Amino acid sequence: MEWLESKFLYLGLNIFTISIPFWRSFEEKYINYKANWGALFKAIAITGAFFIIWDVIFTINGVWGFNPDYLVGIDILHLPIEEWLFFITIPYSCIFIYEVLNRFVKEDYLKLMGKPFSLLLGLSLIASAIGNHEKAYTFWNFLFCGGFLLIHYFIIRPNYLGRFYFSYVVALLGVFLVNGILTGSLIESPVVWYNNEENLGIRLGTIPVEDIFYGMLLILMNLTLFEEFKQSNANE
């Protein structure tokens, strides 16, 4: 598709991702998303700092990189400005989906499986990380995600894990579209390229399977902090 072959592609995907959630943030009758912006942006800032550091290290070491043909050309700490925006637009939109589903889907259908699934997945990811310790993306991604899931199971013990998994599955529909384009679907070459020596080499379409758990960690970290800050604000 010729209209996708533009230096504004990654920026446009960021704008597309956040457009409807931002527009609906000012609707006060049902969601009133903007009322929790304080908690949300603190969560995004803290989580984003962790992921930016990770991203910079991996970019410098060639674990992944960015195609300048699809970027506006502004870099900060070796990362294009679009990548910085990614850590705002994706969490903003995914937490919006979580809040909408909580408002309109009263039943927590995955409540009973939330905690045991987190234990099983966490242990599986850590085992896979150890078994693939020579692959940087696989190892660190699975280690961080698996470890964070186990922290939820053994320490945090929240009551929202079922709702998180439900909302993440819904969010993946949009994530597959955006991340699919970023990794090369519908365009001549990927916006974000990966060194396959540093991952399992398993792709869902054009998306490395590791990205599913990278996204899970990104959203769960944001959600955990969001719920904590929101509760703290409610108690003041």
Textual characterization of the structure:
The protein is mainly alpha-helical and 236 residues long. The protein has one domain (2-235). It has helices at 9-24, 37-60, 81-104, 111-131, 136-156, 161-182, 210-235, and strands at 64-66, 75-76, 79-80, 192-194, 203-204, 207-208. The strands form 3 sheets. Strands 1-4 form a two-stranded antiparallel ribbon. Strands 2-3 form a two-stranded antiparallel sheet. Strands 5-6 form a two-stranded antiparallel sheet. Strand 5 and strand 6 (207-208) form a beta hairpin. Helix 2 packs across helix 3.
- Poorly predicted runs: none
H/E element string?
HHEEEHHHHEEEH
Q: What percent strand?
A: 5-15%
- Percent helix range: 55-70%
The number of E-state strands comes to: 6
- Globally, the shape reads globular
Report the span from N to C terminus: 52 Å
Q: If strands are numbered along the chain, what order do they take across the biggest sheet?
A: 1-4
The whole-angstrom Rg is: 18 Å
Helix/strand structural class: mainly alpha
Tally the helices: what do you get? 7
What is the total domain count? 1
Largest sheet: 2 strands, antiparallel
**Averaged pLDDT:** 96
